[in-house]
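fyi for ur records
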Amino acid sequence: MCIEFGREICGNLDTAESREWLVTNGIGGYASGTVAGLLTRRYHGLLLTALKPPLGRTLLLAKLDETILYDNRSYSLDTNRWADGTVSPHGYQNIERFSLEGTIPLWRFAVADALLEKRVWMQQGVNTTYVQYTLRRATQPLKLTLKAMVNYRDYHSDTQSNGWKMSIEEVEQGICVTAYPGAVPMYLLSDGGSASVADNWYYGFDLAVERYRGLRDREDHLHAATFEVTLNPGEAIAFVASTEKQANLNAEAALKLRRAQEQKLTGIWKTNQPLKTKESPIWIKQLILAADQFIVDRPVPEDPNGKTIIAGYHWFGDWGRDTMISLPGLTISTGRPEVARSILRTFARYVDQGMLPNRFPDAGEQPEYNTVDATLWYFEAVRAYYSATDDDTLLGELFPILADIIDWHCRGTRYNIHLDPADGLLFAGVAGVQLTWMDAKVDDWVVTPRIGKPIEVNALWYNALRRMAKFARHLGKPHQEYEAMADRAKYRFSRFWNEETGYCYDVLDSPDGDDAALRPNQIFAVSLPESPLTLAQQKSVVEVCGRSLLTSHGLRSLAPDHPQYQGKYGGNQYQRDGAYHLGTVWGWLLGPFVLAHLRVYKNPEQARQFLEPMANHLTTHGLGSLSEIFDGDAPMTARGCIAQAWTVAEVLRAWLATEN
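which gave:
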């Protein structure tokens, strides 16, 4: 897909700062910013390292302020907005074109008859960012000056300098910055030109998006060094920011390697989808590259090459639920089952009391287990993997763990998660804890507690039992008990049907009774491989969700006619989390809706139409990727993470299903 903008976008600050780019390094680190070059988030920067892969994310290099001298005239290429609202300089006005080469952002700055290109990418497996400048056209030499703005902080926070003194030392081909004794040094290096220490704080960078999110919107960065180089037409210079003392300064070789890696990804996909790729549009190829950005290393003692999935950029780590939901789309659909295998084995090591972790804290503490559905999505991930590979070895390895999970759920585990002997359905929940994917919580306020028997949890439970019965039969193990439990769960699942409304209750047996709010969770009772609903009920669910919840970019989390519905997402944390699952649209739910629609109507062409608006969305918000959430009210503006794993995964998986 050609994601490309001219001056009509790049030269307009409102449009240029609303479009963000992202490059990643496969271990949890990333670089990200806006087309305009303007910092609008605390999460923007040229080098956000993963010091404890895949977490420990730390901002080291915020940006490069760029100036060129050409024909005795000075031009700024960078753009800053300051605390008083002033925008200076206006470098975005010199951007003639911005585009993505795969995932690599490319700017073309045009001044007079000179054309200067800039690319940004990261080396895979290390905390290293490359910024390359190439003088494509000129009639005389051009002088480029770069001011390196550095920092050293957790990526969720911000910096007020308060007299902070960093150690800045000249080294061969650049400088070394050490924020404080014991901090990881950062090396700012160049393969040409000169470097000089600066050591000046710049105060009051304005972060407009953080202000929208109700967070502190001011930050200071340290101008650590200045780099200068004179380029002749056709020459290039590379600037490298790295935690590696001996970073590779051969930018051309590094760029060639990065391009080869992306070509390999699309090649693997084509090889494994020989019939589908002929008709798939080019934007699907872009999603293949986007999918890889979420797959990162999670080394464990038993497997230093373990893998996991980052839930979303910029601020999420690897979450158990998001990982298991995303796994089929990011790995199986892209032809990378070996990655799926590694992820399944990695997470199996963290199963405790029959539960998968909900998330791994950024600071590296013990994993948190406050989730009822992550473990059940694990069964779906195993099913998808086995269906694609027939890997009996891994199935045999994981089966005892799966069986133990079922046993724990039957006798009861954390947070009152247990099988109700009265109806064979799963109950979950205690006051003050969020357990389902609708998990917003601010201080002691659980916004959508959903204590009781949530419908998607029990649809997953039913599917897990059916799958366990099939696995047991295949492995020559007792299967009758799983079959009997599944039969009972299906029979009693009829309790979810609300004859009066023509759709399903969202939660049964909650402290306030059965919850009849129209939410999208019932779509999983149709989209999952085994549906516990009748054919007529399946059709009614799809129709009701389509009429009341469907938007161009996903399903609303609550019907608009509900008194608690909120159609706009924004404000401080209370306001944002208060709207998170009370009307906000979730992109990942578009995939299950399409699969459910395909199941009911068996019309691939019509089902595929629901996904087509996502092609246009690739050119807004997070360029080349798909967003986490959108406003429930038109025009459904993108919000939240600019790149969300399960949105990419489910759209990709659903598209391929419509082509099969």
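The CA atoms of residues 354 and 408 lie 5 Å apart. thats all i got for now
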